[in-house]
């Protein structure tokens, strides 16, 4: 009787374990694009290296027909470089390294992503054509770093707009440029508002 009971118990336990072992980890293909918004503001004068940065996912990220990161999940990273503008530091710099996704359903998965585009919150109408002209002029003074962003389709300054998966560079923020995940400005301290639109491109684990 005891032997039969043990056999049944072991079979039940193995049956429960096999699906969990066979389940493959979530894979996010390199090149995938994540649409998100910044939860807390960032400021080169107030933040420091090591501070956590979190964006909220605003649209499901799919791999084929499967949702791998659902809307309202979070992508989390940290500041790896922060430089306020000063007499000795002519360019303000903020660099963000994203390294994990916190899923709405629970759990975390590793992710490596760079910033493809930034824009002011869509309800922000502070930008106008004069801002665009001033921003472009500032961008041209940065040198090679800004030239690379411009050649890739990046923009500096301009009116607020809604970003898409094809967007690149910076929209709506006067005098601010973007290169990979480094945000910079030669004319002011980098500041991003809460609700800033963010497009991330997954580069792999």
The gyration radius over C-alpha positions equals: 22 Å
Poorly predicted runs of 5 or more residues: 17-24, 127-158
Main β-sheet, spatial strand arrangement: 1-3-6-7-8-13
Count the E strands.
13
Helix fraction?
A: 10-25%
| Distance linking N and C termini | 51 Å
Structural class: alpha+beta
- Report the biggest beta sheet as strand number plus sense, adding barrel if it closes: 6 strands, antiparallel, barrel
List the helices and strands and how they pair.
Blueprint: H1 2-22, E1 33-38, E2 42-43, E3 52-57, E4 61-63, E5 66-69, E6 74-83, E7 92-102, E8 108-119, H2 129-140, H3 144-151, E9 169-171, E10 177-179, E11 182-185, E12 191-192, E13 197-204
Parallel strand pairs: 8-9
Antiparallel strand pairs: 1-3, 1-13, 2-12, 3-6, 4-5, 6-7, 7-8, 7-11, 8-13, 10-11
Overview of this protein structure:
The structure is a single chain. The chain has helices at residues 2-22, 129-140, 144-151; strands at residues 33-38, 42-43, 52-57, 61-63, 66-69, 74-83, 92-102, 108-119, 169-171, 177-179, 182-185, 191-192, 197-204. It is built from 3 helices and 13 strands, in the order αββββββββααβββββ. The chain is globular.
Short description:
With 205 residues, this protein is of the alpha+beta class.
Quick tags:
205 residues; alpha+beta; 6-stranded antiparallel beta barrel; two-stranded antiparallel ribbon; 13 strands; 20% helix; 36% strand
């Amino acid at each position: 009787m005891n032997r039969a009971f043990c056999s049944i118990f072991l079979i039940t336990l193995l049956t429960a374990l096999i699906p969990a072992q066979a389940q493959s980890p979530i894979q996010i293909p390199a090149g995938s694009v994540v649409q998100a918004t910044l939860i807390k503001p960032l400021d080169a004068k107030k933040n420091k290296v090591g501070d956590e940065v979190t964006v909220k996912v605003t649209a499901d990220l799919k791999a084929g027909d499967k949702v791998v990161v659902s809307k309202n999940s979070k992508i989390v990273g940290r500041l790896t470089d922060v430089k306020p503008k000063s007499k000795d530091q002519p360019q303000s710099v903020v660099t963000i390294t994203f390294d994990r996704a916190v899923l709405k359903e629970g759990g975390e998965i590793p992710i490596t992503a760079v910033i493809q585009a930034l824009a002011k919150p869509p309800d922000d109408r502070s930008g106008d054509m004069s801002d665009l002209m001033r921003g472009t002029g500032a961008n041209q003074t940065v040198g090679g770093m800004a030239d690379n962003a411009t050649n890739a389709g990046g923009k500096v300054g301009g009116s607020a707009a809604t970003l898409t998966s094809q967007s690149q560079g910076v929209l709506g923020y006067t005098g601010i440029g973007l290169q990979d995940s480094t945000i910079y400005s030669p004319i002011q301290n980098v500041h991003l508002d809460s609700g800033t639109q963010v497009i991330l491109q997954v580069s792999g684990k």
